[in-house]
Design goal:
This protein is of the alpha/beta class. The chain contains 10 helices and 6 strands, in the order αβαβαβααβααβαβαα. α3 packs antiparallel against α10, α5 packs parallel to α7 and α6 packs parallel to α8. The site of adenosine-5'-triphosphate (ATP) has 19 residues, from α2, β4, α6 and α9.
Length: 225
């Protein structure tokens, strides 16, 4: 990988150094408000099953689908994502989407990554079954299909068959790998609701994240959107 390219990566991991092999980079996008064990287990299972070299967690700067909802600051979401992933040698966190101005669109992220990494780095965009159903409606979905392989992880409450149908009916040639991950019926919304109700978040998200939420008083008085 040449030096200029490496410099432009910023906090993204260097990958693709050996032109003689193929590398697989997982990208776990989300609002992560807060990150929880459902995100972590989906990323870890994808890493293992697909032989990903690394998974980069990318907290969205200004999530396209949450414009009318109250979202914690990007810095808080970034800090919690960092704390939750720090002990996994195969996980990284990037400020890539946070630093970009304006609404965050996945197509912009993936095309930028495609430019930054050499051709021997394959991109895998990891999503849960709910996001897979939506992705066909995302901006420039046809371009997303060309830029990355989608990983559709099972998620309690969402039917993977519905996702398969949505992809099939889209008429877009998505490359999707459907993946069974240990079922955790939790969501960030659920964790926020528990905070408001004064319930514990322990064992739903890493202890460090629980500590951060307590210390900074996140969610306690928030209107649940
Ligand atoms: P919210 O309730 O605020 O929407 P969320 O729990 O859905 O939060 P997001 O940040 O919206 O979290 O999701 C990021 C990605 O993680 C999405 O692709 C989503 O499908 C996936 N995901 C979230 N929770 C789970 C889970 N429990 N199991 C599998 N995938 C999940
Ligand atoms: Mg969600």
């Amino acid at each position: 990988m040449d030096e200029a390219r490496e410099r432009n990566l910023g906090d993204l991991p260097v990958l693709g150094e050996d032109p003689g092999r193929t590398y697989r980079l997982g990208i776990m996008g989300g609002t992560f408000d807060p990150i929880h064990n459902g995100h972590l287990v989906a990323a870890e299972q994808s890493r293992h099953d697909l032989g990903l070299d690394l998974v980069v967690f990318m907290p969205a700067g200004s999530p396209a689908f949450k414009q009318d909802l109250r979202v914690s600051s990007a810095e808080d979401r970034y800090a919690m994502t960092l704390l939750a992933t720090a002990d996994n040698p195969n996980f990284r966190v990037s400020r890539f989407e946070i630093e970009r101005k304006g609404i965050t669109y996945t197509v912009d992220t993936l095309s930028a990554l495609r430019e930054l990494y050499p051709d021997n780095v394959e991109l895998y965009f990891i999503t849960g079954a709910d996001a897979i159903i939506d992705i066909v409606k995302w901006r420039d979905a046809d371009r997303i299909a060309k830029l990355a392989t989608l990983v559709g992880a099972t998620r309690p409450g969402y039917n993977l068959d519905t996702a398969v149908d949505a992809i099939d009916r889209s008429g877009i040639n998505f490359d999707v790998i459907y993946l069974e991950v240990p079922a955790l019926a939790i969501s960030s919304s659920h964790l926020r609701e528990r905070c408001v109700a004064g319930q514990s978040l322990r064992y739903l998200t890493p202890d460090q994240v629980v500590g951060y939420i307590d210390k900074h008083g996140l969610y306690v008085s928030q209107r649940i959107a």
